[in-house]
Structures are given as C-alpha cells and as structure tokens.
Amino acid sequence: MPRPLSSKLANLPVSGIRRFTALAAATPGCISLAIGEPGETTAPHIRAAVTEELAAGNTHYPPNAGFAYLREAVAAWEGARGIPADPERIFATVGATEAIAASFATVLDPGDEVVLFSPLYLGYQQLAALFGARTVVVDTAGTGFQISRAALEEAVTPRTKLVVVTSPNNPTGCVYTSESLTIVAEAARAHDLYVLADDIYAELVYVPGFTRFAAAHPELADRTFVVNGFSKSWAMTGWRLGWLIAPPAAAPEVAKVHQSLVSSVPAFLQKAAVAALKTPTHDMRAAYLRRRALVRDALAAMGVACAPLCGAFYALIDIAPFGISSEEFCLRAIEQAGVALVPGSCFSAEGHARLSYACEDAVLVEGLDRLARFVDSLR
C-alpha cells in the first residue's frame, strides 16, 4: 500500500467560490453573481497580438522572468502609478496567484506566521498552508473594515514574518485608508516584517484618496512584494497572466522559485500583455461604476446593508438579520430564487454573503430582482 500523501493537504479547503459557481451552473436558469470574473471578452486588439505572435512562430521558451520588453513595460506602467521598479525585479507570472505563491515560497519557512485581515480571500490561507506556514487572521468587521493598530499588534508574534494587504479588498469591495496602510508600515518596521501588497483590483476604484501600499510607503521597498495582473482590469482571466515586483534582495530567490514552479509564462502571450498595459482601463472602471450604482440602489431598496462599495466589483451584504447561516442562505438562494452568491463563511465573514457585479447589466438587474424576492420571502 502506498505511503500517506502530504499531511498539509488534509485540512486544505476546496474553494467555496468554485463550489457555488458550479452549483449555479448545474441549476437550470440560475443567474450567477458568485464568481469574480469580468463578463466582458478581452479586447480584440489584445487578442490579435497573440495571432500575430503565433504566425511569427514565437512558440519557443522565453526567458524565465519574461521577455525584457514585457518587464520594461510593466516597470513603466507601475512607475507612472508611483511605484518605481527595476525590470530586473519584475517577473511575469501565471496570474496573480502564482505571484503570491512565489512570494510566499520565497519568504516563508515551516512554522512561520502570516497575518491576514478578514474578510479575506481564501487563497492566501491555502497557499500559506501548502508552504507549512500558519495564518493569523485579524478581523476588521468591527472597525469599519479598516485595520486596527491594537489588533495588528496583538496578532504579531516572534513567528510572524509576513503581512498581506489587499486593497481594494476581496470580498468587501473596501479600500484601506492611508491610516490603515500606515499602521501596517509601522508594524513592518517595528517587527522587521515583509509585506505582500495584492493590487489586483487597484485599477477599479470609485472613491477619491485611494493609495496603493507600495506608493504610500516607498521606504519599505526592501521588504514589499507587489502583486498585480491582467485578469480583472483588462478582462483576461483565462489568460493567466500577472506580475510580481520583488524586493531587491529577494529577486534572485524569487527567480529560483518561479523557474521551479512554472518555468515561464507562454512566449506568444507576452506581446498581448504589453498591448493590454497600453490600453486605458477607464472604460472598465466606468462599466463597474454603473453596475455599482445598480447594486447600491437595489440593496437599499431591499433594506439590506453592505460594506462600503469603494472598489473591485463585490458587495459584501449583511445577512445576519435573517437568522440563518451564510451557507444556508446561499444554497436556498440558488434553489428557491435561481440566483447564486458566495457564503461569507468562505471569506472568514460569517453572517454575510458576497455578491459579484462583474456581469452584464441586464444579467445583474435580473439577478438583483431575484435576490430581492428571495430576501422578501425570508422576512
């Protein structure tokens, strides 16, 4: 009989987002407001760049970190947004997920601790577990979804090595204030911690005063990993393209991890990535701003509270008044109303459900109408 498989997998949860998306797909006529995937198709001129590269025969191994022209384009794009970076510290990755995984693998040893702020994206906990690290979750629901200095200080121990900051946030749609970012920066300095800034939604912000962590605290470039990607802002989820900016001293170690995990991203996608970086994101932002208004008005009409809708394309709605678990709420919403959301329990946010407005307007309106009827049936 074969020996046991890795013990790290025993308690590794399956993605609740994917589970409820699959349930929606298996339910005839169900409208899914579950998955965080833009309903738009990638722009034609971006897709055309792949056709041109394939016709030119660009099907061989590229450099592990990505072609120089792509890393230089990322450096220019980030520099224009207040985050200067040497292209030698930039890695083209298989989506933001691989950028996070490469960062974790570079920083963490078994037994190290990672501080996360809830509500949170489950993937951080999954990846930390795969690398033998422990996650310590700091709840922000009681502080307006902002970071409390006292709560963060209480969470830090001698084993803490990394803090993850996600702004705009998945699943809340909130953005961290400059005060919240400063609290993280001060903790990083005081306790000699690394910071991972997951900026995947940073182009989709609808309120003034937003600042990315690395732009607000350039003095911490020696310990900040910046993660970003093409999936959300350019409707390129299926392309699996992202990037990572590593701290200077960590970049050679990231290179080892990246080449071991994936070798490289496909050669013939990289000119398309450059085309995306040259494409303004204001049309996508305008579409989500319109859908955000639809969600805000519909939830107000339902009498359902939600976290502030500041960025990304999510609404974390408060279902505690209905007196049922978030799992039951979302199962019944699919079965009884034909609309799918994701339970808050998937994000360490029991008593809530996540609604994604990353879909066409007409689909969103119908889904919100169904949700309103379902909510009425629970009262």
Write up what this structure looks like:
It is built from 13 helices and 12 strands. With 379 residues, it is α/β, with parallel strands linked by helices. It folds into 2 domains: 7-42 and 281-378, Aspartate Aminotransferase, domain 1; 60-277, Aspartate Aminotransferase, domain 2 (3-Layer(aba) Sandwich). Strands 2-8-7-6-5-3-4 form a 7-stranded mixed β-sheet, sandwiched between helices. The longest helix has 21 residues, at 282-302. The protein is globular and about 60 Å long.
Question: What are the SSEs and their pairings?
Answer:
Elements (H helix, E strand, L loop, with lengths): L15 H10 L5 E2 L11 H12 L12 H12 L10 E4 L1 H13 L5 E6 L3 H9 L3 E6 L9 H7 L4 E7 L11 H14 L2 E5 L14 H4 L7 E6 L12 E4 L5 H11 L8 H8 L4 H21 L11 E5 L7 H12 L1 E2 L1 E2 L8 E5 L4 H18 L1
Parallel strand pairs: 1-10, 3-4, 3-5, 5-6, 6-7
Antiparallel strand pairs: 2-8, 7-8, 9-12, 11-12
Helix pairs in contact: 2-10, 3-10, 4-5, 4-9, 11-13
Key phrases:
alpha/beta, Aspartate Aminotransferase, domain 1, 2 domains, Aspartate Aminotransferase, domain 2, three-stranded antiparallel beta sheet, 40% helix, 12 strands
